[in-house]
């Protein structure tokens, strides 16, 4: 996940030693870091979280976020990293970092997590596209290890049969837990002789998957596997997440049970906005950001708060622009906004006045906001 913040909030880094580096496909490699005993409390994490790596590339200090593929019980930090193009900073990282080197790694963060329920019989479905498999591997390993009754289904899309990151690790998992884990692969750029497995993972494919793989339930003859789904985990590009999340929702899964992680900026809402808002013009916004006090005037409330501040050149932190990453989290100190559906804030946080600028429609002539939550 590339870090797109114009400025970052304070993050705690520690020097970790690289224990392993491995190329997985033409464009994807993995890194594994040791956690020394003294830093174990700092690197306690939940499945589905990510860390930030800080490193030098082309004379500049780069900070990029990468989801962990390791599960908490494995006691190490493993990452899957995609080289997007030949001169990218991740290519530099692959070329220049050697086993035994030390690198600055942040403490784990992120909310693409679910509550562990070791005593329940659950059905969990995962959809991943390409490098989007990384947090799902962490989740799947964790669930298979901690929840002996939970069954899992993974639907994994890639371009072709040659370029599947973490295929060996997935094969090993499948071999070890074949009674509880099913994996189906899909290919967007290769014919494999069966139309079901060809093409992108999208809304249509979800309908086919439900009919073909998630139908009659051996454990409950009066029901289907799809009826029994407790949680859905989705990770990949914005278009894919939007399409699959909406398909799952339309096929009856409550939004609170559909979890997603985005690996790129996405300027659209994942779920369509169903409300209409009264037009308000010439809105005064006072806000605190990185210890500075700013004032801005918004033309109207047709565009959400974050986007308007970015257009005016303010260095507001952001990453996904879709209510998933929490980078634009702030407190509404005065005025009124409508906070649209988001994947990040808890009910308690929303009640305490926290909002996400990327999901906020301003509803009053003046608002006052504070982005400095951690100062
Ligand atoms: S930019 Fe990601 S939640 Fe707002």
From TrEMBL:
Transcription regulation keyword on record: no
Gene3D superfamilies in the record: 3.10.20.30, Nucleotide-binding domain of ferredoxin-NADP reductase (FNR) module (3.40.50.80), Translation factors (2.40.30.10)
Cofactor(s) listed: FAD
Pfam families in alphabetical order: FAD_binding_6, Fer2, NAD_binding_1
Location of the 2Fe-2S ferredoxin-type domain: 283-375
Molecular function GO terms recorded: 2 iron, 2 sulfur cluster binding; flavin adenine dinucleotide binding; metal ion binding; oxidoreductase activity
Keywords, comma-separated and alphabetical: 2Fe-2S, FAD, Flavoprotein, Iron, Iron-sulfur, Metal-binding, Oxidoreductase
Every FAD-binding FR-type domain range: 11-115
Entries under InterPro entries matching the protein: 2Fe-2S_ferredoxin-like_sf, 2Fe-2S_ferredoxin-type, 2Fe2S_fd_BS, Beta-grasp_dom_sf, Cbr1-like_FAD-bd_dom, FAD-bd_FR_type, FNR_nucleotide-bd, MRET
Matches recorded under CDD domains: fer2 (cd00207)
TM annotation in the entry: none
PANTHER family from the UniProt entry: 1,2-PHENYLACETYL-COA EPOXIDASE, SUBUNIT E, NADH OXIDOREDUCTASE HCR
Protein name: Oxidoreductase
Native species: Kaistella jeonii
């Amino acid at each position: 996940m590339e870090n797109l913040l114009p400025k970052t909030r304070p993050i705690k880094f520690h020097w970790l030693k690289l224990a392993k580096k491995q190329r997985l496909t033409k464009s994807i490699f993995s890194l594994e870091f040791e956690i020394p005993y003294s830093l174990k409390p700092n690197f306690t994490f939940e499945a589905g979280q990510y860390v930030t790596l800080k490193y030098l590339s082309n004379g500049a200090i780069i900070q990029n976020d990468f989801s962990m593929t390791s599960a908490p019980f494995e006691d190490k930090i493993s990452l899957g990293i995609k080289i997007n193009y030949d001169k990218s900073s991740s290519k530099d990282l692959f070329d220049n970092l050697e086993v035994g080197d030390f690198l600055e790694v942040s403490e784990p963060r992120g909310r693409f997590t679910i509550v562990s329920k070791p005593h329940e019989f659950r059905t969990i479905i995962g959809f991943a596209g390409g490098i989007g498999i990384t947090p799902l591997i962490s989740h799947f390993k964790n669930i298979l290890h901690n929840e002996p009754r939970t069954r899992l289904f993974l639907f994994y899309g890639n371009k072709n049969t040659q370029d599947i990151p973490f295929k060996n690790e997935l094969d090993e998992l499948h071999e070890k837990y074949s009674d509880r884990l099913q994996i189906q692969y899909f290919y967007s750029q290769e014919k494999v002789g069966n139309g079901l497995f060809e093409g992108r993972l999208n809304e249509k494919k979800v309908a086919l998957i439900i009919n073909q793989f998630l139908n009659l339930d051996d454990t409950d003859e009066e029901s289907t596997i799809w009826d029994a789904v407790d949680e859905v985990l989705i990770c990949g590009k914005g278009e894919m997440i939007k399409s699959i999340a909406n398909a799952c929702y339309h096929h009856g899964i409550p939004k609170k049970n559909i979890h997603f992680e985005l690996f790129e900026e996405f300027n659209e809402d994942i779920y369509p906005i169903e409300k209409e808002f009264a037009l308000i013009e010439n809105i005064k916004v006072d806000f605190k950001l990185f210890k500075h006090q700013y004032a801005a005037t918004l033309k109207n409330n047709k565009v959400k708060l974050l986007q308007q501040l970015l257009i005016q050149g303010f260095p507001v932190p952001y990453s996904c622009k879709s209510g998933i990453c929490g980078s634009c989290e702030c407190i509404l100190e005065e005025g009124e906004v409508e906070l649209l559906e988001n994947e990040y804030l808890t009910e308690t946080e929303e009640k305490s006045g926290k909002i996400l600028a990327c999901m906020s429609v301003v509803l009053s002539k003046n608002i006052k906001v504070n982005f400095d939550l951690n100062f």
